[in-house]
Amino acid sequence: MRLLFYFLFTLFSLLSIKAQTEPWQGKFEPIDNMITPPNTYRTASGAPGRDYWQQQANYKIKATLDETNNTISGKETITYYNNSPDDLSYLWIQLEQNVNKKGNEDFGGINNNIKDGMTSRQMQFLTRAIDFPAGYSIKYVKDSNGKNIKTMVNNTMMKVKLNTLLKSGESTSFSIAWSYPITDRSMYSLSREGYEYFPSDDNTVYLIAHWFPRMAVYNDTEGWQNQQFQKLGEFALEFGDYDVEITVPEDHIVASTGLLQNSESVLTKAQRKRLDEARKSFDKPVMVITQKEAEANEKQKSKKQKTWKFSAKNVRDFAFASSRKFMWDAQAVKLPTNTVMAMSFYPKEGLPVWQEESTKAVRHALEVYSEATFDYPYPVAISVNTSNIGMEFPMISFNGGRPKNGKISNNAKQGMIGTIIHEVGHNWFPMIVSSDERKWMWMDEGLNTFLHQRTVAERYPDFNSVTPKSIVPFMSGDKNILRPIMTTSDSELMSQFGANFYLKPTVGLQMLRNSIIGKELFDEAFKEYANRWKYKHPNPADLFRTLEDATATDLDWFYRGWFFTTDHVDMELSHVKWFKVYEENSNIEDQNNTSKVKIDASGKNVQAQTKDFSSGPEMITMNATPDAAYGQFLSRINEPELRKQLSGKNIYEITIKNVGGLVMPVTIEWIFTDGSKEIDTIPAEIWRRNEYEIQKTFIKEKEVKEVNLDPNFEYADTDTKNNSFPKVETASEFDTFKNNKRKS
Length: 744
Prior knowledge:
By secondary structure, the chain is α+β, with helices and mostly antiparallel strands. It has 16 helices and 32 strands.
């Protein structure tokens, strides 16, 4: 014990420690108390545990689309497998269509303020002065024996009170008959589905989603996920197999989740032949339904019906689109373990850009996402053109973006292609890596946007894409209204959920990949997460732990700051001091020319802060180390060699302040007097012992002209004006005002 005390005393007597005088905030402490603790279901490594379980729900559905009355009705049989360790006396069913009922608790809650000037459409969103019917009519719920099951509807959730206890390890089947009016998408906000009417040819495109009563998730972390649907937070769903029959007008074309089972009944011989050709076409799309055929369909208005049959395995949802207006093109995409049919469905209003770009964008998404995670496992990936929306479902997505009179601006085209890539990308997050959208929007939107932006950057390098600079305006915002990423979906403001749930997680992952962990190691870890949790239900803790587990990198400091706070990055290069070691035998005149003050090794007589390097270096007197300083060590430093190694070298001490509160690695650019440059990177751990201010010493052969922090803008620093030394002088608001007045 005496030896340890002596060692510590000696150590502290030798080190000059810059004390942190402000309150310690524990920025590098573990986040264990902020996330779900590990257990046998979810391990401390971030992987599913030996006892992990999840439920399964299989569906058999027969539905009819009534174009005359804009309604859909159906009957479904759900077979529900209770893989949990719990016995269940009731089940919860999601009834999302009820959110559109007038008087719903969410009605008007998204934007509910009246302004002195409002458009008629904004007033309709707010008041619903023009009323329309909405919501489910549940005709019956019956068990497998045909007996009625008691139910209770609470807004967008229906409680099914089972006639017989569903024990652990058993399954049950029950049937539901239902109908609802399909809503006009133009009549209310956040319209993810419904119909779009085209007055010019008196036709309609139907986007049918959230259309059948479906099982809520029951899991190990919260039991039933029966949080009400309030439009912003989306869905938590179980995986299962689907057999679906969809009856529509005879001249309609249906795009759907799953594989078409009866093409001979719904497609012409010529169309089936083209579809077969598309399965062998890897270089360009083949038109399955041409513009001429689609325009002929528009005029028919058939009163007859036909039924399309689809089958989908191991998906968490099912959606479809139906219209007589659709053109249809398709192309095969070869992946290492699978060949996928990339398809696009669009009305003539989407020409020519949809025919030129949609299926190509689907292919790019399939290729880049598969490389980054796992090969796309499903047989088809479909993009359907619509207006004012981007919405995803397994194997199919509804994507906005249309030309006007056949022409589209470059920005609008970029937006259209980006939307297609983004929504197709959702097949991975959350359709396969099935996180809880209703609770954590960022887990699907953020991870998906990260890969969406990577796809854009790699396949469309001339397009704009997200970088750390993109998030600066948001992170510079008012801290009174900013919320952390770890905010539940429906608690975020409409004005900032895009920045907080899409862009900020994207930038965070970009920083981890490009600057903190490194591409190769990060890519392995991200792929590990995707493969661990495909077809399963991960939580934030599972992602956080997996990235650390697969990289051997402590990232708690990053998670704590980036995901759990509203701190921002603002590092200030407070000062740079230039020193040289004083040499007794050097030319005294040279010493005098380059130094006004000589300081000793203990740091006394340090000059006041300078604004640049014009005063030359300060000279450090390096004294011989007394024997007592070595303690019990018998060896001695080779002082002549040390002096030789430091002779003529430039020693720079930099001071950096953490103004924004968010700790990050420090990247320093040195620009030398001969014009050359050099980069040094300091890991974020340098902030461990002082979260507010750090100092670091560097030895350079050359004299430095300028020093800059974060020269490549890797860390979303919100104020770059304080990143340089010598200081960059900026004009005051008054001087700027005077200069502008002179110019005018």
